[in-house]
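=== RUN LOG ===
request id: a7f3
mode: sequence -> structure
chains: 1
length: 996
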Amino acid sequence: MTAVPGRRSSTFTRLLRFGFTDPSAAERLLDVPELASVRTDPVLLDALGATADPDLALAGLVRIVEAQDPAERRALLDTLITAKPLRDRLLGVLGASEALGDHLARHPRDWHALVTYEAADLHPGVAEFERGLAGARDPVALRIAYRRCLLAIAARDVCGTTDVAEAAAELADLATATLRAALAIARTAAPEDAALCRLAVIAMGKCGGHELNYVSDVDVIFVGEPAEGADERKALQAATRLASHLMRICSETTVEGTIWPVDANLRPEGRNGPLVRTLSSHLAYYQRWAKTWEFQALLKARAVAGDPELGAAYIEAVSPLVWQAAERDNFVADVQKMRRRVIDTIPAAQVERELKLGPGGLRDVEFAVQLLQLVHGRSDATLHSGTTLDALGALAAGGYVGRADAAQLDEAYRFLRAMEHRIQLYRLRRTHLVPEDEADLRRLGRSLGLRTEPVSTLNREWKRHASVVRRLHEKLFYRPLLDAVAQLSPGETRLSPRAAGQRLEALGYADPTSALRHLEALSSGVTRKAAIQRTLLPVLLGWFADSADPDAGLLGFRKVSDALGKTPWYLRLLRDEGAAAENLARVLSAGRLAPDLLLRAPEAVAILGDPEGLGPRLREPLEQEVLAAVNRAESAEGAVAAARGVRRRELFRTAAADLIGSYGTEDNPAEEDPGALVDRVGNAVTDLNAATLSGALRAAVRAEWGETLPTRFAVIGMGRFGGHELSYGSDADVLFVHEPRDGVDEQEAARAANRVVTEMRRLLQLPTADPPLLIDADLRPEGKSGPMVRTLASYAAYYRRWSLVWESQALLRAEPMAGDAELGRRFIELVDPLRYPAEGLGEDAVREIRRLKARMESERMPRGADPTLHTKLGRGGLSDVEWTIQLLQMRHGWAEPGLRTTRTRTALRAARAADLISTEDAATLDEAWVLATRVRNGVMLVRGRPGDTFPSDGRELAAVGRYLGYEPGHVGDMLDDYRRVTRRARGVVERLFYGV
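=== RESULT ===
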């Protein structure tokens, strides 16, 4: 393979391509005589290139091959080339672990441990590892056998045969088998001591939790009892000698290195206490002296070696104590302090590289999971697992952790543990620091399957997962709710004002002083109401903090609780209906409209706890309820007050569903289709306004004429009302039509119809606590100059003689909403030829529509308004999209039945189906129309009053952003996105509407 001086050899280039960082050294290694039979075989380079560190793998292979005798060398190389499982395993280990490469060089025949590829070899347990260690009779032999077993675990791990949790479980099983072998060696060395006592070894920490690292202290507790007839004092002395010998066998350094340190410091009294205690002595200590952290540690206790009956008795005795720990005074505070102490011990220079103990590290997940286990495990045995990921799954299954949160934590924990495994595997050293050296980071990234830009990808993925852990850990671990849950005497629970103030500031409360006053009012006292609210407040504070206005959420909760706190069903609803409390928090902190509606009749909060309660009600049952309420009333004013009360409740239902669908909850993610939210609001508000008009019409008629009006009367919805596209603050655009009954004088019928209209408008605008429903009839013939109500014949005569093109366009939205259904149907038959003219619009009519639109753009835009952000009249806004679609309807509606609809989005889909507009253009117009409508809805929800532009107030603007799905600090992105979407829509309008 010698290259011409001054030129790169083809092998050099190939080696670079295969991932070698030092191709020259690799060329020299491939040239060694021992590799002569395989150096040109393509499978070798392919396999080396697939490893975490091809240079390291090749160097390790050469050392192993050189250490073999000729016959063994031939067998190794033949197997290496012909058997892919061995090739992948051996080279995979050599490319990931310098330490295991050293072991194979010292014990060259141990490569045979990687040849077996049977079911038992793929998923070994304690029994298989015990067989692997069976021949070890002294500490040196035990180390060699241990490394041989470790070699197989690492091979399965780096090749992906096992995942990180399975590898950790295998490492714990190997540790179990090793402790048993070490105890057997100790007992053989001191048979007299063995005869005097019964000794059980209890694994703690990661070994006990069945989730061990490659290199980790193995935490244990020793329990001893005298053998039958033996003296207790002498038995404990003998047990202590055996335990000490076991620890030395595993921990001491020999010519074959060490296995791992055995740490017994988790025992009662720590390193100051006796190494071995009797079971009764353990129990006496735990019942009287133990601290909270000791019970937390016992959560992972598992009997692994020695006397099995004694080990089982120990676990059975201490388990109840573990699950009673949450009842101890200051339980949560103790655990949190311990966690903070752990963080404070990390050197400042290492915090950012600390994989285990740093912010967003492994310990954050483990502490959070353990704390939740201890709090809830006393009443739920499904949480009694010492394995972090199993416990996390059980917490999610039991509803103690949101499933989405648990899934994110699970993914992050697995990634961080995999990083920890690979870091330790390299030199088999106990470390949790992410390396800084580029070559080490490259090997680490490649070992995790990150082959493209391994260093930058590794850093990005590590930071992402750590960020997820940090965010969710703060939510789970520091949530003061745990304080309330852990205390069985809730009357004693009281938020510390100082701590609460700091917490509130951290959560984003703008006025912590006022917030503290609200908290004090809500949580002080020994009443049932105060006790339940103390339980609710911590989690509510977190939900409020997740909104744009936490202060408003807390103030709203205080007002609702003041109004309803003495009603038993309210507190029961929030305590027992998991979704109700979160839904209430979302509604109260997202803006002014929904809380204002709720506080006018707080009993509507019951809607938030009903799984079906947030769904919109259909018009027919809604109208039946309104009419029934009107019929029960003694006066027209009382009747319409009842109808407006129903409307207010249904507006709250609609607004609450819109907010919750936009924000999402822990159990239900935010609605992904904004168009669905817009349609839901438009249909719901339209239906409830139609039902309210029906109620007002019935009330006005009953007050003067009883059950029958002298003339048939119908209300025709126009504009957004007729299009089922109303926003929360929209007026009801209508036309009134009547037709005298048989035998009734026309003038009398007209007077009756006008009095009904006047009374309806008066009743619906009476000053009450409920929002008014404003009726706008300006789209009637002759506008404000024309009569408020006409007969059907009068409409026919006017439209036949005087109708203008804009009136035909306005009639595209006409739909009967209340009153005489037959008369409404006949009105629609009358106007259909006007709005869908036969053979479509003439060119003069098209030019007139374009002229009107251009004039409206120039004259009706408010002075000083930003045309790029005005949702109604601005560039690519509602008016642009609607006029474009309406022009298509008037031109082609006569021939395309799908276009004969009052609804913008339905007409747009029909135009696309008829190939009148391209799929891309239709999507662009739809996106802009939905976004502009959502902005208008959001402004009304946030400010409590309608608006066609984004708010100027920073907090209100942020609240609209949150409603639209933007995270805090991204209002600039929201405005940029709005301009981008509407600019593209305007381009479509220029082409399709103006013909540019």
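=== NOTES ===
Residues 46 and 806 are 74 Å apart (CA to CA).
The two ends are 70 Å apart (CA to CA).
=== END ===
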